[in-house]
Amino acid sequence: MKKIVLITGTSTGLGLKTAILFGMQGFKVYATMRNLEKKEALLKEAKEKNIDLHIEQLDVSDSNSIQKCIKKIIEQNGRIDILINNAGAGFVRTTEHASQEEIEWVTDVNYFSVIRTTKAVLPFMRKAKQGHIINISSVGGLVGQPFNELYCGAKFAVEGYTESLATYLTEPFGIKFSIVEPGGISSEFANSVLKNVEKTGGLQNDEYLPIFNSYMGSAKKRSENEDSGIYQSPEEVAQVVLKCALDKNPPLRIRTSEWANEFCHLKTSADPDGKKLNKEVIDQLLK
Known about the structure:
Number of helices: 12
Number of strands: 9
CATH architecture: 3-Layer(aba) Sandwich
Oligomer: single chain
Low-confidence stretches: none
Order of helices and strands: EHEHEHEHEHHEEHHEHEHHH
Strand order of the largest sheet: 3-2-1-4-5-6-9
CATH superfamily: NAD(P)-binding Rossmann-like Domain
CATH topology: Rossmann fold
């Protein structure tokens, strides 16, 4: 029996490649995106690889859109085995320069969206006594970085949210949780961040500018250095997501590259996959 997987944000980058990879591995894939006019790239690659995907509209910022999509999947299959919360967006700006609208947007797309989709699938997974929710986070969910505080704050929230769910839903209900933490991904995600900075004129001429220019200069050097190990292809990260999905005892958290592991080493060395702390919390607070 094919496993049913729902993936958000599949129009480009990691989401697109994850949908293709899972389709190639025999999963029944519901690849979703906010704007169905952007489905052509996914359709083209699926056709080239002779994969049958189910492409559906789902806007992670709209609870009604989420409920409508999930209702359709449940009606067709009776269950959702795996939810991959991939939709998200980067954001480079100081707290002072960000508008309230931007602050709410970056938090919504990277954090509240995860809660909305998770909330929508949990009743069905709980009833089935099985399921796996895989949340795409970032090394920015473990390590705060310059000019990324709003993005990192949202990803830190995803990490805490997922850790907490794993303390009381896995043992009694069989619902597994995994957090995938990439470093840099060579995709439209990274390009859109840089384009957004350029579009808004950076920080203009103020006291932050020298620090910001230093950060952007360093980011440009890293992106041009193919040997740095920072940037992975979306396909490489998708392989890690697939590994989590196929693992009968998946990690609570996993970095996707050697560079990502080294970058987060001081935060993760005592408990690389997060399962030791998860067990300790359960033992202290639930037993």
